[in-house]
Amino acid sequence: MNSKDKTKDSQQYMGRTVQIILPLLILVLCIGIAIPVLIRPYEKLSAFTNIAFMDNMKNPPAGSGLEIVNNEISTTHSGETFTEGEVVIPVFGEQYAMLEIESIDLSVPVYWGSNAELLEIGAVQTTSSTAAGSGGNAVIDAHVNTFFNELHKVKKGDKVTLYTNYGRFTYEVSEKIEFDADDKKYILPAKEEKLTLYTCEMQVFGSSKKRTGVVCKPVEMVYYNQKEAE
To answer: pLDDT tens digits, the chain, 230 residues: what are they?
Structure first.
């Protein structure tokens, strides 16, 4: 075979190789572009799916031993109110509040205690934190791909309201926070009254070791039952 034939064969081989590899490269590029574009609609769909099927998710699986209590929490209390009052501590698994953030159109039930079952149906408050209105740090979290999927959009100055059966507590976002999963400084007990909301940082693949959220300071504390004199 002369050099001219060899060159022709080589060119044909390269042409066939390019024809095979080029579509694969285009496919990989399209997938790389599609993942970031599709992740936000997926988050939205996950949130709406959880909300739509919430009634079917209220009861824990058989044998779990957890009794979930769903309460009717009024957000339009019209009775007498007080500047000081009694705080009612719920039992583990009991809904004790409704959390609303108008700026991101969020309204979610809050359950006392934290485990996987409760996180499927709402936000949760760790029992090591303090109930709203009792002084200290009330710490609430939820999944980033469901109820807190837009928590990152909350800005300083936004209003946050926590409705309970014993009072209404209004806060203002004072600080946006970011911390490692093993860093407890934002969720530890505190002397001053405040509300801390947090969730995982959104990850395309796997789970994140970062947490993001907000710290809120109280601006109005309204109680439904007056505290008795000691």
So the answer is: 555 555 555 555 555 665 677 667 777 676 666 554 444 444 444 433 333 333 333 334 434 578 999 999 999 999 999 999 999 999 999 999 999 999 999 999 999 999 999 999 999 999 999 999 999 999 999 999 999 999 999 999 999 999 999 999 999 999 999 999 999 999 999 999 999 999 999 865 556 789 999 999 999 999 999 876 55
Burial 112-149, CB ≥16 within 10 A → b, else e: bbbeebbbbbbbbbbeebbbbbeebbbbbbbbbbbbbb
For 42, list phi and psi in degrees, rounded to 5: -65, -40
d(CA 213, CA 197): 5
**pTM for the whole thing?**
0.72
Q: Is residue 36 exposed (0-12), middle (13-18) or buried (19+ Cβ within 10 Å)? A: exposed
The C-alpha atoms of residue 186 and residue 178 are separated, in whole angstroms, by: 9
Residue 26 parent element (H or E): helix 3-52
Structural contact between residues 219 and 161, judged by C-beta atoms closer than 8 angstroms: no
> SS3 for 43?
helix
Backbone angle region of 226, left / alpha / beta, with phi > 0 → left and psi within -120 to 50 → alpha? beta
Contact, 164 vs 88, CB < 8 A? yes
For residues 176 and 198, what is the distance between their CA atoms, to the nearest angstrom? 10
DSSP-derived secondary structure letter, 85? B
CA distances, 219 to each of 26, 43, 83 (Å): 55, 32, 12
